[in-house]
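Below is how a single chain appears once it has passed through the pipeline. First comes the sequence as given, then the structure the pipeline wrote out for it. We keep one example in the README because the format questions we get most often are answered faster by looking than by reading.
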Amino acid sequence: MEQKITKQIFDALRKGKHISVGDSLWVHIEDNKDQLKSLFSQIGFNLQVRSEKGYAYFLPDDDDLAKKDSVRKIVGILNMILLDLKPKLNQSEMEQFIQGNLSLPLSSINLHATARFSNALRSVLKISDVEQLRNILKSSDRYGFHKVENDRLSLLPASHRIFEFSMKHADQLLNGGEAD
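Resulting structure:
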């Protein structure tokens, strides 16, 4: 594998990004995953390749990535969006959205319309209005959990880590939010 491509993969992943199916680098990761894992481990990086789910990332030391406020914020927002969508979409549409096969217009996302989400956004995440929420969604797609194109939101294969994170930290996330 070319050194240039290895550097591109390393540079993208060390910034906390996920490389997913559809990314031009994904094929190189799939074809060379053992070589890349070995190479990156020599410099202290633990490459995780989830072929069955279609994404790769560096496993952070001591969950450093999960501790970042910006990552926690987007994880919280995407979880709220999923909870908000559950009664609005049928089962098939919900599955398509979770799998990244359905995109939604950003204009249809208004978590402030629901008191519980609005309170959590304001008090926990310090997001005061719909426009601020949309700007955060647009700017945080660099983490690789979702993408915003043409003012539409879709999830990426790496978003599966959101659900894993949420299950692992459910008590902490719920205690940090509003009381029922």
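The beta strands are 19-20, 46-50, 55-59, 104-105, 146-149, 152-155.

See the next section for the split statistics.
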